[in-house]
Specification:
This is Cytochrome D ubiquinol oxidase, subunit II. One of its GO terms (biological process) is aerobic electron transport chain. It holds the Pfam family Cyt_bd_oxida_II. It is an enzyme of class 1 (oxidoreductase). This protein is mainly alpha-helical and 370 residues long. The chain has one domain (1-364). The chain is built from 16 helices and 4 strands. A two-stranded antiparallel sheet has the order 1-2. The protein has a two-stranded antiparallel sheet with strand order 3-4. Strand 3 and strand 4 form a beta hairpin.
Length: 370
Amino acid sequence: MYETYQLYWWFIVSLLAGIFVFMMFVQGGQTLIFCLSENELHKDMIVNSIGKKWELTFTTLVMFGGACFAAFPLFYATSFGGGYWIWMAILFCFIIQAVAYEYRKKPHNFLGQKTYEIFLLINGSVGVFLIGLMLSTFFSGNEFKLNETNFVLWQNSLRGLEIFKNPFNYILGITLVFSSRVGGNLYLMNNIDDEYLNAKFRKSLKVNFIIFLLFFILFLLWIFTKDGFMMGEDGIVVMKKYQYILNFINTPILLVTFVLGLILVSYGIYKALFAKSNKGIFFYGLGIVMAVTSLFFSLGLSGNLFYPSYTHLQSSLSIYNSSSSLYTLRVMSVISVFIPFVLAYIIYVWRAMDKVKLTSKEIQNDEHIY
């Protein structure tokens, strides 16, 4: 029974990670402001299109952190408490995003409009890259040790910034940056009614998808060929060859879901580039959520250590040694029955906000724009 609740909550955390990666199309759209807009009107259209959804990305990140805190408190204390400088940098990138949307078009702002647009660019590029680096440590490991009372002893004075030393971490960081730009192009194509801009979005989509695909394949080659961290039958943490690809082979349903997700992503791109459809974002979004959720969930299975320590292997964390008590997980599981209603509300609001496509005329006649 206890293991069932642990797996259930690891699935919830994995699902939130998948939704968050998809929702970063907002950040990707922000990086397109300077390279695709040729005048102030185009810039306003892009900012106000993605501005409708910017709170959802941050809310999903907070929900991810909240779920980790409640269901896997030892992981939360280790990562957020030990490697806090990298998390503070990520948080700063999201703080300046909120400030930028609030004050970009406010009259007499002392920093100037371009400064706030640079804030959006930093959030969409640096912020996403840092998140990719952090997520990559679920595969590459961290520098921490737990003492007899499970007190976290971070082994590096850089407190999280040491992840920059591992060049393999950069692969996922770059992958997420271009994944978010792909999503940003797809969303803007769906939300903005402007033939000129849509032609530019389609051209940008092609370039960004190629770069994303190259780094995504490189990421898969890295994790599927590297040694993985796993718990042996004697309770001793060991390194096992091809552990991450074996997770999929040993759980066929995850492999099917992962591959199906990639197919949907590809189909979304096909719809946008070759079928000239503006509906590609929906196939892409579902595919991203399925693929990321499957990959993340696999880290909690087959004796895998989802948050490994390469400086002290026996301190590595699994869903079993880092979770809350059975009572806590059970109570939270009762509350989680409301999650489908929350998702239904988000879908309803999304459809209501995007029912009418954004036009240049609307931007010119609206005094309350971002």
